[in-house]
Amino acid sequence: MGKKSKDRAGAELSRPDGAEPSAPMKNKEYRRLLKPLHAELVALQEWVKSSGAKVCVVFEGRDTAGKGGVIKAITERVSPRVFRVVALPAPTEREKSQMYVQRYLPHLPAGGEVVIFDRSWYNRAGVERVLGFCTEEETEHFLQLIPTVERSIVDSGVILLKYWLEVSEEQQTMRLQSRMDDPRKYWKLSELDLKSYSRWYDYSRARDEMFHLTDTGWAPWYVAINDDKKRGRLNVISHLLSQVPYEPLDRPDLTLPKRQKAEGYQEPGQPLHWIPTPY
């Protein structure tokens, strides 16, 4: 059984016992544990390229849940030609007139690709619904339709993984305050973030209904606790690796060849514009 205080009922998800460590993970430990996971992601990448597999990973969660950090940790050591991140802007007027999921479909992976959605078609079930960018009828229609769409995606051979990053009220408050105070993070803060912050319970209700109607056998929701960002990133990467049936390929035995001789080469006399070296 999970734990949840009475005053949080309906707001935060009940968490598994033992899922909340007492102390945040140190950066040195995080980097030590992340290194072998990065090696496995490279192995997954090479398998995807050679097998023509198609992998689609969806990340959803409240504002400041840490989606960008998880995605950065996944893509840090792999090729952007294989691991492609999709973060669509607000729809254009033309896109608004289309079938809702239409603008997302062209971004689905082809053979040999891993596509990661930093927010996805589930915008309709979350931010659009809570902030009034769509009607309740449009949301209900989407929630009824999308399991069938995802069944078609999976039946086409795509490995579809959907992650919800769960964050506590306290962590969301700390992270938004940090964005307000830190000039390096200020660009992450938007007016919509502040509106979303005030609608905590509306988001909770929207999340719960989304899970109820779209958590299917062919495309289940996987929930990751991300109050400690470092632990959350490690847990998500480890789980992602366990869900893709990749097989590490044999690495060729390579040696560096000898470099050619100078054979009269001389550096040009043209003065170069060297940058300053204050560090």
UniProtKB/TrEMBL annotation:
Residues 7-18 have a biased composition (Basic and acidic residues). Belongs to the polyphosphate kinase 2 (PPK2) family. Class I subfamily. This is ADP/GDP-polyphosphate phosphotransferase. Residues 1-26 are annotated as: Disordered. Keywords: Kinase, Transferase. PANTHER family: ADP-POLYPHOSPHATE PHOSPHOTRANSFERASE, POLYPHOSPHATE:AMP PHOSPHOTRANSFERASE-RELATED. GO terms for biological process: phosphorus metabolic process. The keyword Phosphoprotein does not apply. One of its GO terms (molecular function) is polyphosphate kinase activity. Uses inorganic polyphosphate (polyP) as a donor to convert GDP to GTP or ADP to ATP. It comes from Rhodococcus koreensis.
